[in-house]
Prior knowledge:
Layout lengths: L4 E3 L5 E3 L9 H10 L4 H19 L7 E2 L4 H4 L10 H8 L7 H12 L4 E2 L2 H7 L16 H13 L13 E6 L3 H4 L4 E6 L7 E4 L2 H4 L7 E6 L7 E6 L2 H10 L4 E6 L3
Parallel strand pairs: 3-4, 9-10
Antiparallel strand pairs: 1-2, 5-6, 7-8, 8-10
Helix pairs in contact: 1-4, 2-5, 7-10
Amino acid sequence: xxxxxxxxxxxxxxxxxxxxxxxxxxxxxxxxxxxxxxxxxxxxxxxxxxxxxxxxxxxxxxxxxxxxxxxxxxxxxxxxxxxxxxxxxxxxxxxxxxxxxxxxxxxxxxxxxxxxxxxxxxxxxxxxxxxxxxxxxxxxxxxxxxxxxxxxxxxxxxxxxxxxxxxxxxxxxxxxxxxxxxxxxxxxxxxxxxxxxxxxxxxxxxxxxxxxxxxxxxxxxxxxxxxxxxxxxxxxxxxxxxxxxxxxxxxxxxxxxxx
Length: 259
């Protein structure tokens, strides 16, 4: 048993917090703070989104600010019974609230200052598909990241048609909670071989001179879904997303904020 990690119903794994001294941080952040945001929080996030989007738009680059639905939001019915009832009730009621991201989506649309993509409703439509979100993982893998990428390409105007017919196979992926468990294990998930795409991946030389970790990757796809160039600036959820999103561009860069 760990304060950071809990096992929920039907074997679903939930990471409660990155810190052992705040064991309910994830639930507080999503299901309490963001589900019922204060006016101050809403204004602060609106200013941040406006500033970030404006910086790139002024330089001629269209921007979409995205948020990955987490397993807490997708599977609130699977939360552990050991979790404080207050948080279980709050998380299960998340959809009934005018949450922070929904308000920011509307504000961005109304003002035209920024675009927010948060496909929780789409994910809930697919949540019960096999291996959609492997229940042993905190991060997404396979079908969930693939669906996010392909729908985002349409919603952001990169491609015109939603294409979801890529061949897929069941394979093994690494455990993303090894830092907490102290041992690694393999988990079944959907894997996309992308045999029809001609993609190469490399690290730019200037980034390797700064860090030995993979802080930036450059994907080149000879037959991408568009001839456009793209950049993803993301936290750890971008690691699984980048290979799927890269197929939409001829050149695609992924900058990992965690490194």
